[in-house]
Design brief:
The complex is a heterodimer. Chain A contains 2 helices and 23 strands. Chain B has 4 domains: 194 residues, no CATH class; 157 residues, no CATH class; 265 residues, no CATH class; 131 residues, no CATH class. Helices cover 58% and strands 15% of the residues of chain B. The chains are: A mainly beta, B alpha+beta. The interface between A and B is large, with 44 and 43 residues.
Chain lengths: 371, 890
């Protein structure tokens, strides 16, 4: 009985990110609304707080926060919270409030070096009946999971299966520009076609305060977090199968984002990066200036996937080593939402010295799916 | 030693012993079979309900599916309320609709069938009813994201090579969202069979919904092993749109957060619910689904135990005989030092062993019958409660043991009196054994025992039902039965002493024999009295019921033709299959139609712990009201003074909710509590959980709902029914209407009634045969005991023929006495069944109708059979042995 569900979800998620499914849906039989999610175009004029809110005309959107935390006793935790919104093209114009035209899902995970693997949980629901991703300002709610922004503070509450996060991510720490618009004024290319792109903004160097409850024990935590908001109708180029991504907060107050889109056989489809220096200077790098190279791989005993958990990143003329807290930070939700990816807390080293706290994201390694 | 001798005696009495075994076995078998069949149906229904609700802690619903859905706003309230929402882990909304799919061919067939019927006016249409039930598909609209966690069974498996996929694109990513498409549906095996779709590939179906045809795509199958009826699952948004139910839900299955107290949550949310909604635990729902048919099941089980009761009498007769035969044997044991107590114990043990063996045989037989019946006939014993339920036989060892125990008890009770008689007898006297009555110290209950039982019976009658079941009324019947049986010897003696002396020596002898030996005669007669009275009681009850039902049907089916959209009649179908007033008006215009009344049905949940009450909306003109059998009416001034809209409630509703004419009642209609006044109480045999009717104008004023479920067409006297029906067929979408001839409904209803009582008739016949077997056994016992008497009579010059006539006269006398007492007792029991048991169980009253002719024929037949069995059983006494018997003593 479990299998058909997972198959359903895997395919569902495929659809959410794969652009060439769109024409298929567009030519559905008569009686179904034709579906053309708005494509991403260059030179957006993003305004805030409006563009912190949802963009329901776009196919896929996510609000993503990761960070390195520490309890009062010095115990480290990594965390990841992501809310997704997806325009399915199904049931648009239906008079039913249950019409599944907008689906929300969310993932949350805690990296606990003592445990050596992730604690994670997820939610999925159609928008409506108490679940929403509001427009105009950041306000997302999925069952009892919430993320909203007000007074320069992102507040997220995640009561999950075996942990609870209640975190406030402060935007008050100078001197970084907020938000940090990625690519060209927030238009971030992902592939060779001009529509292979997303609107993408980041909020690095967020000061975290809040509570983490694990094993029935609630502890106050502090730390530093990274926030991304990205929305796109054609995220993956047609020949891309996945990506490697890093977001890192430097101890000196700087920040760095870098990604590469991989094609079949590991070929490079696209790459890009942004480096913010401690003084506030921002440098954008194009596809030839960003390169990820594998140092070590780890094979998951659960899924059989091999992940390049340890990599070197060369960006511009800088060179970093990305070292995961521990290998097993695979997030296998194939039994419910169907995604298998690796989202790990990692230390960023320069010449063997830790200089930044980052999160490394690896997708498309689990199966020959194009993810 | 004793045991060996007893076994030897059983062997000697083999034929008769086998008869008692058969009697008890039959009783146990019938009782167990009926119980198992009903229990299986119940657990099947409960399991299906549980499967569909998954692991829900609580279910929020407007009663059962028949309540017709409720506003989805309550889900919004639950999921946005700051206090409630955090306590809910999963809230799975469900919209359930019964869809009746016409198979084009069968539609044609039934059209033809109906026309033929119009012409010949005969034959019932069991076939048609079978077709309609088999074509009903339960469609469940789900939110897969919630259901996947709570009811994983709902997840369908998509067929490979889908329609969309083949036509549109080789890209398999086109398929997944197809499960969410508003026209996609998953079917189970039974449903695939009903629509005639292939088992492993996608199909497009055109289904009639209301007056439209809609296309749905069968994109996969679901498998719920516990659910064998046709079932379909689709996305809830699609279901709402497809079935014109936007904004409506049938059910919300809730899983609470770990650690939340379910009962506390329940009591906290109850006040927030709109009227008519309830929150129930799976246990409560199990109880509810069982409660609907509970009275029916218990009554049937009690009836089936009647056979066991008569089986007990058979043991009594057989043991009496065997005790008489072994008198000298027992006397010998006693002189050899066996105590009274040991002898008593041994004889009772004999009865117990017999009863237990019979019980075991009966249990095996009962289980076999139940299994076979469930396989061949389904669980519905004709009552309609479990129509279409085909469960596996579901039984527990404990239940089987209880029924075997009932067999043992019947054996012990039957053996007790004869055993006591044998044990108490003075050995010396028994050894001498020249007592002509043969029975020795016969036990006769004193007159006050019988009288006390009758008084007890009267007292029990005055007491109310316990938990909706007339236990005390049954106890009263039992007390009455035993009281009369205890008094039977006295009544017999009194009656015979009043008989004037006859010139015929033989008749004189017969009358005096019975008068002077009340013990053995009573033993013979009690079996007759018991079985005959029960048969008479059931007969009078069934005849009264049937006559009242006919009267009621005549009143209810006042119109000539009934028309509904789509086929089938499930109340949950009614919400999807409605027509609007313009369609209704088209019917008014048909040539030959005097007027077309608009009918609307709703299910109303008045009490969350009880089944919903049917609300029937129709124009309540004076002639319509007059056609209802009105039992009580409120004073017109009281109604006028209240200034409230009038509701007319059925007898069952009045009973169940403690209402009476002239009282105000609050009824939730469309989520709003309406205050109404009860104009009167009418008789309704259709809905034992209650019904109420209000005027269509008043209903529309309250709700604005002008939809129509059924049309009741009254024709002009000159009109031709067939022409009108053809005119309806010729209307646009005419093939979509189910046209029902009122005469046909009437016939269907009565044949359904007869079918449901067929079980009862079978039980009655079984009881009578057991009773007759008892008579034969008693006469045999007496013939054995009186062999010396007969020998003496022969010695004195009586011919064999005269002795035969003597026995015949005795049999006739006994039969007449038994029939007379049985008639009176049966009549009394019938009154209890009609006015107490039925009222308490089903909340319906009926007028008393007495089938005098049938009663007379039955009485004559009984007397004849008694005489015949007396003569046949006495054949032995006319053999040579009888003469030898006198010599033996000389």
């Amino acid at each position: 009985m479990k299998l058909p569900i997972s198959r359903f979800f895997i395919s569902l998620l495929l659809l959410l990110v794969i652009p060439n499914a769109a024409p298929v849906l567009a030519s559905e039989p008569i009686g179904r609304a034709t579906f053309r999610p708005t494509p991403v175009t260059p030179n957006p004029s993003l305004t805030f707080p409006r563009d912190h809110g949802a963009h329901p005309a776009i196919r896929t959107e996510w609000w993503y926060a990761t960070g390195h935390l520490q309890t009062a006793s010095g115990k480290p935790f990594g965390f990841q919270v992501t809310f997704f919104r997806s325009r399915t093209g199904v049931g648009e114009g239906s008079p039913s409030k249950f019409a599944p035209s907008q689906i929300l899902f969310a993932h949350a995970a805690i990296a606990d070096p003592e445990l050596g693997k992730l604690r994670h949980d997820e939610r999925i629901a159609r928008a409506g009946f108490g679940n929403f991703a509001k427009t105009g300002a950041m306000d997302v709610k999925l069952e009892q999971w919430t993320m909203q922004m007000s007074d320069n503070l992102i507040h997220t509450k995640i009561p999950a299966k075996d942990f609870t996060l209640d975190l406030k991510l402060g935007l008050t720490k100078p001197p970084l520009p907020r938000p940090l618009l990625q690519g060209e004024s927030g238009y971030s290319r992902k592939g060779p076609a001009s529509t292979d792109a997303s609107y993408y903004l980041s909020l690095p160097q967020l000061a975290v305060s809040g509570d983490v409850m694990v094993n029935g024990k609630t502890e106050a935590v502090t730390g530093v977090a990274w926030f991304d908001h990205e929305w796109s109708s054609d995220y993956l180029a047609s020949d891309a199968v996945g990506w490697d991504w890093l977001g890192a907060n430097f101890a000196d107050g700087g920040a760095m984002m870098a990604f590469q889109m991989r094609g079949k056989n590991g070929s490079l489809v696209w790459a890009s990066g942004t480096r913010v220096f401690a003084g506030g200077q921002i440098v954008k790098y194009g596809r030839d200036a960003v390169r990820f190279t594998t140092i070590n791989t780890w094979k998951s005993p659960r899924t059989g996937a091999t992940w390049p958990v340890s990599q070197t990143l060369s960006i511009g003329d800088e060179m970093f080593a990305l070292k995961p807290w521990f290998n097993d930070q695979e997030l296998d939700s194939s039994r419910s939402t169907g995604i298998i990816y690796w989202e790990g807390a990692a230390d960023v080293l320069r010449e063997n010295k830790p200089v930044a706290k980052g999160y490394l994201e690896l997708t498309g390694y689990a199966k020959p799916i194009k993810f | 030693m004793l045991a060996k001798l007893f076994i030897a005696s059983i062997r000697a009495n083999l034929g008769r012993t086998l008869l008692s075994v058969a009697g008890i076995a039959l009783g146990v078998a019938l009782g167990l079979a009926v119980h198992v069949i009903n229990q299986s149906a119940i657990s099947e229904m409960q399991q299906a309900t549980r499967t569909l609700s998954g692991d829900a802690d609580l279910t929020l619903s407007g009663g059962r599916a028949s309540a017709g859905g409720f506003d989805e706003a309550v889900l919004e309230t639950f999921l946005t309320d700051a206090h409630i929402a955090p306590l809910i882990a999963i809230a799975s909304p469900i919209l359930e609709i019964n869809v009746v799919l016409p198979l084009p061919k069968s539609l044609e067939q039934s059209m033809q069938l109906m026309q033929e019927k119009m012409e010949t006016q005969n034959q019932t249409t069991t076939q048609t009813t079978n077709q309609t039930t088999s074509q009903t598909i339960r469609v469940i609209g789900i939110d897969i994201f919630q259901a996947a966690r709570l009811q994983p069974g709902y997840a369908g498996e998509r067929f490979k090579g889908g329609l969309v996929e083949q036509q549109k694109s080789p890209n398999d990513s086109a398929m997944p969202l197809s499960a969410l498409q508003p026209d996609s549906i998953f079917l189970n095996r039974a449903a695939l069979a009903v629509v005639g779709a292939q088992m492993n590939g996608p199909t497009s179906l055109s289904i009639p919904i209301g007056l439209e045809n809609k296309t749905i795509n069968v994109i996969g199958k679901i498998e719920l092993p516990q659910f064998k009826e046709p079932l379909a699952v689709m996305d809830i948004a699609g279901a709402q749109v497809l079935f014109n139910q936007v904004g409506k839900l049938s059910r919300i299955d809730l899983r609470l957060q770990p650690g939340v107290n379910i009962e506390r949550f329940r009591s906290n949310v109850l006040p927030l619910l709109p009227p008519g909604l309830s929150v129930t635990t799976p246990q409560q729902r199990d109880e509810q689904s069982a409660a609907v048919s509970r009275a029916y099941r218990i009554n049937l089980t009690v009836l089936s135990l009647v056979a066991l009761f008569t089986g007990g009498f058979l043991v009594f007769s057989t043991q009496s005989l065997s005790v008489v035969r072994r008198r000298s044997q027992f006397a010998l044991y006693r002189t050899l030092g066996v105590t009274q107590r040991e002898l008593l114990r041994a004889l009772v043990a004999e009865g117990a062993a017999l009863g237990t063996i019979s019980g075991a045989i009966g249990a095996a037989l009962g289980l076999a019958v139940a299994t076979l019946a469930l396989k061949k006939l389904g669980a519905d014993l004709g009552s309609g409660f479990f129509a279409g339920v085909v469960p596996e036989a579901d039984w527990h060892a404990a239940t089987v043991l209880v029924f075997i125990g009932l067999g043992s008890a019947a054996g012990v009770v039957g053996a007790w009196l004869p055993a006591r008689q044998a044990a108490l007898e003075a050995p010396a006297r028994a050894l001498k054994a020249n007592d002509d009555a043969g029975g020795g110290a016969t036990f006769l209950p004193p007159w006050w025992a019988g009288a006390t039982l009758l008084v007890l019976s009267a007292v029990l009658l005055a007491l109310p039902a316990i938990d909706g079941i007339p236990w005390l009324a049954y106890a009263s019947i039992a007390a009455m039965l035993f009281g009369v049986i205890a008094l039977t010897p006295i009544i017999c003696a009194k009656a015979l002493s009043l008989v004037p002396p006859s010139k015929s020596i033989i008749r004189q002898l017969a009358a005096r024999h019975i008068e002077k030996s009340p013990g053995p005669s009573a033993a013979a007669i009690t079996g007759i009295v018991a079985s005959f009275s029960l048969m008479i009681a059931m007969l009078i009850m069934v005849v009264s019921f049937r006559a009242s039902l006919e009267d009621w049907l005549t009143g209810v089916l006042k119109a000539d033709i009934y028309v509904r959209v789509g086929r089938g009649n499930g109340p949950s179908t009614s919400e999807a299959n409605t027509m609007n007033t313009s369609t209704g008006a088209a019917f008014q215009a048909i040539n030959g139609v005097e007027h077309a009344d608009y009918l609307r049905y709703r299910g109303i949940n008045l009490n969350p712990d009880m089944a919903p009450v049917a609300l029937i909306v129709r124009p309540l003109r004076d002639d319509v009201l007059a056609s209802l059998t009105m039992l009580r009416r409120a004073d017109a001034n009281v109604i006028a003074a209240s200034k409230l809209p009038i509701v007319w409630v059925s007898e069952a509703m009045a009973d169940l909710y403690g209402l009476d004419a002239g009282q105000a009642v609050t009824v939730p209609i469309e989520g709003i509590a309406r205050k109404l006044i009860v104009g009167g109480v009418w008789r309704d045999y259709a809905r034992s959980s209650g019904a109420m009717t209000i005027d269509r104008e008043a209903y529309i004023a309250m709700t604005g709902d002008t939809r129509i479920n059924d049309l009741a067409l009254t024709l002009k006297p000159s009109a031709n029914k067939l022409e009108v029906m053809n005119a309806i067929r010729a209307m646009p979408n005419g093939d979509r209407f189910d046209i029902i001839n009122a005469a046909e409904i009437r016939k269907l209803s009565l044949s359904a009634f007869d079918r449901s009582f067929a079980v009862t008739y079978a039980l009655e016949i079984a009881a009578i045969f057991v009773g007759l077997a008892g008579i034969s056994a008693t006469f045999s016992a007496q013939a054995w005991a009186r062999r010396r008497e007969f020998g003496m009579l022969r010695h004195l010059g009586m011919t064999r023929g005269e002795i035969r006539r003597l026995l015949g006269a005795e049999g006739t006398l006994l039969g007449s006495l038994g029939a007379a007492i049985g008639l009176v007792l049966g009549f009394a029991i019938a009154l209890v069944l009609i006015f107490v048991v039925n009222r308490q169980s089903f909340h319906w009253s009926m007028e008393l109708h007495i089938p005098w002719l049938t009663l007379a024929i039955l009485s004559v037949a009984l007397i004849g059979l008694t005489a015949l069995s007396a003569i046949i059983s006495g054949r032995f006494s006319m053999s040579r042995q009888a003469v030898l018997a006198v010599k033996e003593d000389a």
